[in-house]
Amino acid sequence: MKARVHVTLKNGVLDPQGKAVHHALQGLGFDGVNDVRQGKFIELELDGTDAAKAEAEVKEMCEKLLANTVIEDYSIELA
Amino acid sequence: MKSAVILFPGINRENDAIAALEQATGTKPVVVWHGETELPKTDIIMVPGGFSYGDYLRCGAMAAKSPIMRAVAERAKAGVTILGVCNGFQILTEAGLLPGALMRNASLKFICKNTHLKIENADTRFTNQYQAGDVVDYPVAHHDGNFFADSETLDRLEGEGRVILRYCDANGVVDPATNLNGSQRNIAGIINEAGNVLGMMPHPENAIDPLHGGTDGRNLFKSLVEAAS
């Protein structure tokens, strides 16, 4: 089973890297971009077939290591 | 007086930490590798700067989960003096021993220079050799020193006198223009609730010898010794 984890900065946390990317996109002529937020994508290859159990475990991984919940939110997708 | 320096792979300021602690305590600190599970009995523990685990995932995230950090957390709880500098500060926040987080500098640049800092609270075991309001000069060398915490946490830190250092200019002016890296409220260093754990981005251990260009950092280490003796 695969788990896909997206880690993004919380709303209200400034994202200087996203701002820099936004600025660079504008420099390339992409004027229709209102905002850019940069995050992380983490793909995990998991043992087992129990989706509920896997989700609970990945949630624990996010809380303990993959995300810093002071500044980041995360979402989990199983496939 | 005994001290320990915790060493993680990718740390590069351990020798500066060792020199500063040895100068202040008169004894060479014990160096403890991250894979150890036990710490020798010491009065002071220092988590030095560098780039533990190549700053992978987030600065300090991996080091904070090292076996030795469980022992460091126990010592923190027992009231032992713990100083985290630069990557050490990042590690202590990631380990949950200090609130907040250190994000990418607002300028996105790695900042390596000397900076002025205002001592906000001299009534701590880390600053008792300074006066509140003193302006000191320490080097900084970091890419991720932009301190963030929610406003409730910031109010609490300020209300409890736990903001120890702020970025300022030579006259002690703390304002957006003197905010080195975008840190909330110019914060450069904070202590925990019990007052025995300090995390700071600037490097006092690199301001202890005239050859460093200044010795303003000596009093921070003297303070630790004073408090522990």
Automatic annotation (TrEMBL), chain A:
Q: Which UniProt keywords apply?
A: ATP-binding, Cytoplasm, Ligase, Nucleotide-binding, Purine biosynthesis
Q: Which GO terms describe its cellular component?
A: cytoplasm
Q: Which GO terms describe its biological process?
A: 'de novo' IMP biosynthetic process
**What are the recorded GO MF terms, alphabetically?**
ATP binding; phosphoribosylformylglycinamidine synthase activity
Q: Does the keyword Ribosomal protein apply?
A: no
Known pathway? Purine metabolism; IMP biosynthesis via de novo pathway; 5-amino-1-(5-phospho-D-ribosyl)imidazole from N(2)-formyl-N(1)-(5-phospho-D-ribosyl)glycinamide: step 1/2
Kind of enzyme, top EC level?
A: ligase
> Reaction(s) catalyzed by this protein?
N(2)-formyl-N(1)-(5-phospho-beta-D-ribosyl)glycinamide + L-glutamine + ATP + H2O = 2-formamido-N(1)-(5-O-phospho-beta-D-ribosyl)acetamidine + L-glutamate + ADP + phosphate + H(+)
Location in or out of the cell: Cytoplasm
Q: What functional role does this protein have?
A: Part of the phosphoribosylformylglycinamidine synthase complex involved in the purines biosynthetic pathway. Catalyzes the ATP-dependent conversion of formylglycinamide ribonucleotide (FGAR) and glutamine to yield formylglycinamidine ribonucleotide (FGAM) and glutamate. The FGAM synthase complex is composed of three subunits. PurQ produces an ammonia molecule by converting glutamine to glutamate. PurL transfers the ammonia molecule to FGAR to form FGAM in an ATP-dependent manner.
**What's this protein's family per the entry?**
Belongs to the PurS family.
Name of protein? Phosphoribosylformylglycinamidine synthase subunit PurS
Q: Which organism is it from?
A: Thalassospira povalilytica
The gene designation is purS
UniProtKB/TrEMBL annotation, chain B:
Q: What is its EC number?
A: 6.3.5.3, 3.5.1.2
The record's listing under Gene3D superfamilies reads: 3.40.50.880
GO CC terms in record = cytoplasm
- Which catalytic residues are annotated? 86, 203, 205
Record bears the keyword Iron-sulfur:
no
- A GO BP term, please? 'de novo' IMP biosynthetic process
Q: Which UniProt keywords apply?
A: ATP-binding, Cytoplasm, Glutamine amidotransferase, Hydrolase, Ligase, Nucleotide-binding, Purine biosynthesis
Q: Where in the cell is it found?
A: Cytoplasm
Catalytic reaction annotation: L-glutamine + H2O = L-glutamate + NH4(+); N(2)-formyl-N(1)-(5-phospho-beta-D-ribosyl)glycinamide + L-glutamine + ATP + H2O = 2-formamido-N(1)-(5-O-phospho-beta-D-ribosyl)acetamidine + L-glutamate + ADP + phosphate + H(+)
**GO molecular-function terms, A-Z:** ATP binding; glutaminase activity; phosphoribosylformylglycinamidine synthase activity
Subunit arrangement?
Part of the FGAM synthase complex composed of 1 PurL, 1 PurQ and 2 PurS subunits.
Q: What is this protein called?
A: Phosphoribosylformylglycinamidine synthase subunit PurQ
Species of origin reads Thalassospira profundimaris
List the top taxonomic levels of the source: Bacteria, Pseudomonadati, Pseudomonadota, Alphaproteobacteria, Rhodospirillales
Q: Which gene encodes it?
A: purQ
